[in-house]
Amino acid sequence: MPEHPPHSISPQQQAVEEELVRTVAASFDATADGRLRELMQSLTRHVHSFIREVRLTEDEWKAGIEFLTAVGYITDAKRQEFVLLSDVLGASMQTVAVNNKAHSTATEATVFGPFFLEDSPEIEIGGDIAAGAPGEPCWIEGTVTGTDGAPIPGARLEVWEADEDGLYDVQYGDDRTSGRAHLHADEQGRYAFWGLTPVPYPIPFDGPVGRMLERTGRSPVRAAHLHFMVTAPQRRPLVTHIFVRGDEQLDIGDSVFGVKDSLIKDFIKQPTGTPTPNGRNLGGKPWSRTRFDIVLAPAGA
Ligand code: BEZ
Ligand code: FE
């Protein structure tokens, strides 16, 4: 038996470790920016607490540094492995939770993800965001209202999604634009568009984050979803998704912890030949439809 079993330390050793935490935290005492001081001192305490709790070995410390170095090396203008790491650790969703406080009937927010692009094409209500992306057509409709139930005419909706092969346009590397667009709600706050029935797809897993998921027996797959970003004057911007009820990945687990029950919607399959809501001719292709009524919180809520 060692004198002190693992994770149990002598009072003398404890005093040494605690003194170091105090010294490092105090090294930030003169930080003029009070918020920065708070962040650095809290970070110090949490990092030291982690090292002490798990009794981090020097080899593990080195492996951690090598892992973070690899995360940095693979990161460039198009690939943000640090955000991916934050996503799979649930840190992104925790930040979303802290910054989007539950407010009355407001629609819940979820993770932004790396595939949003500024300057998406504008479509009319009833237009098609797929722009040739392969997949089953899906009619998505709903309203945008405030928490008082009043419609928000002109609310801007940005929508983006992967195709049936689980890829966003930007992942093809050929400058195509598909599976994304923006539109505006009408005078009654109504919107509608054609997209694709979402399918589950993996987050990029060919880098250090993917290797970490593999070593820990975790799936890189995200539950099938369609992204929304909804904005309007005097309203809190909403970044969210809708998920597909019945998607098996909902039971297995979403790799970035983005699912909220309130965001799981029925995507109802339409028998072949069912007339479409706006007369679009789908040439007999099957299609689905769903409804997502969006409620925006007031700005500052
Ligand atoms: C996505 O929804 O597209 C996504 C979110 C987090 C990490 C990777 C992808
Ligand atoms: Fe996504």
Feature tags:
301 residues; elongated; single chain; 5-stranded mixed beta sheet; binds fe (iii) ion; 28% helix; binds benzoic acid; 12 strands; alpha/beta; Protocatechuate 3,4-Dioxygenase, subunit A
Low-confidence stretches: none
Tell me which ligands are bound. benzoic acid, fe (iii) ion
Q: Helix count? A: 7
Separation, N- and C-terminal Cα atoms: 57 Å
CATH architecture type of the largest domain: Sandwich
CATH topology of the largest domain: Protocatechuate 3,4-Dioxygenase, subunit A
Name the overall outline. elongated
> Which whole number gives the mean pLDDT?
95
CATH class of the largest domain: Mainly Beta
Largest sheet: 5 strands, mixed
Strand content: 15-25%
Compressed to H and E, one letter per element, the order equals HHHHHEEEEEHEEEHEEEE
Radius of gyration: 24 Å
How many domain regions?
Answer: 2
Helical fraction equals 25-40%
3D structure, described in words:
There is one protein chain. This protein is an alpha/beta fold. It has 2 domains: 11-56; 84-296, Protocatechuate 3,4-Dioxygenase, subunit A. The chain is built from 7 helices and 12 strands. It has helices at residues 11-26, 34-54, 58-74, 81-88, 91-99, 208-215, 249-252; strands at 137-146, 156-160, 180-184, 190-196, 201-202, 221-222, 225-231, 238-244, 264-265, 268-270, 287-291, 294-296. Strands 1, 4, 10, 11 and 12 form a 5-stranded mixed sheet that branches. Strands 3-2-7-8-9 form a 5-stranded mixed sheet, with no helix packed on it. The chain has a two-stranded antiparallel ribbon with strand order 5-6. Helix 1 (11-26) packs antiparallel against helix 2 (34-54). The longest helix is centred in the N-terminal third of the chain and has 21 residues, at 34-54. The protein is elongated, with a radius of gyration of 24 Å. 28% of the residues are buried. The mean pLDDT is 95. The structure holds benzoic acid (BEZ) and fe (iii) ion. Benzoic acid binds next to helix 4.
